[in-house]
Fold each of these.
Amino acid sequence: EEEGLRVFQSVRIKIGEAKNLPTYPGPNKMRDCYCTVNLDQEEVFRTKIVEKSLCPFYGEDFYCEIPRSFRHLSFYIFDRDVFRRDSIIGKVAILKEDLQKYHNRDTWFQLQHVDADSEVQGKVHLELRLSEVITDTGVICHKLATRVLECQGLPIVNGQCDPYATVTLAGPYRTKEKKTKVKK
């Protein structure tokens, strides 16, 4: 960057509609849906709720400057539930490098199923040491030392990332769990 020159990225999105959403399992069958726009896992926009529809029309525009680097621009369709946590119906995730393909194009995307494993992001760099220890009674035991060296690409939620690691060692007779301090 040259001195005095500020480079920024922005995105403008038109959220049109969703079609043929799966029916609600209850007697009503209809859903009260809204859509969120996320940079990685940080929500940056939410549409209004469209009530009692399996083909909600949103017709909303969204514009924002992008304050940081990101990997995925994602859209989540939720079903609002007044008694429990809102449930995710599906998502569309677009890699940052693929966004140019959709510039000024009206495109339909297939919703993808969402599960906890598909939402995990980032990498962790670990150091593991397994050693044998002989006790006073001559029994050989194994000792595992684990060190978290660094993490990369972790999601930023509400503008911050407060990571910690949990290490769980499951043996035949017991399970032991240790948690690191939160890194600010």
Amino acid sequence: MAHVADSEPDSAQAHLTQAIIDAMPEHIAILAPDGTILAVNAAWRAFARQNGDPNSLHTDIGVNYFAICEAATAPEGIEAISALQGMRAVLQGDLERFEMEYPCHSPDRERWFVLQVTPLRNGDAETISGLLVRHVEITERVLSARAAWQARRSSAIDSVARLSLSPAPTTSELFGTTRLSETAPELFANLASEYRHLIDQAVEQRIFGEEKRSSERLRHFAAKLGALHIGPRDVIELHVHTMRGLISDEHSLRAEACAEEGRLAVLELMGYLVAFYRTYALGILRSPPAPFSKDY
């Protein structure tokens, strides 16, 4: 009888704890030190049902959350391993708390969340007895930030685009007044595709410290443009066309990296193109650059 009496406060406390976490809109789980899920809230279960676990077989009480992270495959695997490392760091006392933003897109819309992990401590406040894991949706914030960034970037691109509206008289005399995009749209599209590929490569190679290779490719591309008798205005149009496509196609982080590489690339490309035409002007090249061909 005494056992029943003693268990009643514990049961009441458990119901109160469950009611509290169920009232929270975030997806919440309480983990044991070994990663076993001890409790989840209503929002956690609802999200699981709507996203591939309708019977709560893989995401509910008794399941090992650490094992789920370890078993995750690409593309989610990278985020899952980072989350696992962060949770273990909190358990070991290396971190006071851990946060990580990550994408979790559904078939019909983009979504982002932030994972927040805090330790649960015993009464002595020294021993960590588990983890409180929260997944908070931040999609609206991410989309707003992306829209603001795209607006700023579009404004910068528009400023560059205005440079091609009224070419200098000397430029018009050397390269004509017609636009490559109008007279040879297929060639323009091919060159824009090649330029975008160069920027994509530059982003990848910067990660591995191979900027020299990017510069060499830009030098060859500038020589090709020079041989096609393409002037500064058309280079600006190529750049603007490519960058507008990049900021609309790429996710914000990669788009930002591409935008920075594009800014550097167009300056470098202009420098190489000037050097190419200067070489011709000094008579080092035996014949003038050939005019562009639609069959290029």
Amino acid sequence: MSPVTLYFVLTFLICTSLGFTGILLLDRSRRIRRARLVRFSTDHPGRPSARVMRRIEAVQAAEKGGLRRKRGGIMGLLEVRLQEAGVEITPAAAIGLMVLIAAGVALGVWRIGLLPPPLALVVGGGSGWFVFNVFLDILSARRVRRFNEALPDCLDILARGLRAGQPIPAALSVVAQHATGIAQDEFRRCCEELKLGVPLIRALTGMAERIGSPEAHFVTVATSLQAETGGNLVETLENLAELLRERKKLRKKAAALTAEIRVSAVILSSLPFVVAVTLYFMNPGYLNPLITDPRGQIMAMAAVASLGMGIFSMYRLSRIDV
């Protein structure tokens, strides 16, 4: 093993070990803090007092937002992202997956001779973070889309139950029985939290935060305003369901108007790779200078960067917020 290879491997192992050690220590301190809050400040055995509940909520809020001031917000932000994507793994496991992706990319880039070991580590680390976040974005968008598609029907069922004289918890249980997919899981979880004594507004707020959908926040705001001001919740829910259906129609119209841009983006972004694969099979040595020659490597990286900027520009042009 050459000295450069040994240096590369040792540096990667040391960084990985330090990262995992820090992650485990941070998770352990968080669990100890939560257990200490509940164990030493209760009015009744096994039942936290109001003071403890406020402190636990403050800790949870710090873990989601204010944690940035203490440790960069990485663990809290990652936990929120995993919740929104519906991925049931710990932040430590997610960072472990990022490290594995980064290791694979770094070793691959280094082995084919594109970059020296230090730059390969940098490229691998950025690739691990980027690939995992794109994966979470895809899962989150799919989860939000499925929830929003089922939400208007759920609101109609809830409004009919309230119009028939049912209390809100009973109407929510009916929604949980008749809904499908992610909406059924989330409303069922709300019903279970209500049975355990969680206030309605807090249960709905938790659902909106887990989904990360503006429509779910609309439902929470409408319900909380009705609870505070005594407005007509049935009419509000019916109007909200109709509004969500209109937004869905507008999104479909926007998708139809921007279909040409999206198809052009797919064709133009895939064309360089199709040409490269074709040239490789026709003349395998034709593209070797792009890999072996430093000038070719610079040209290849510049081409990839310009292609990425073009794809991003077309993506922004085809995206219309409704």
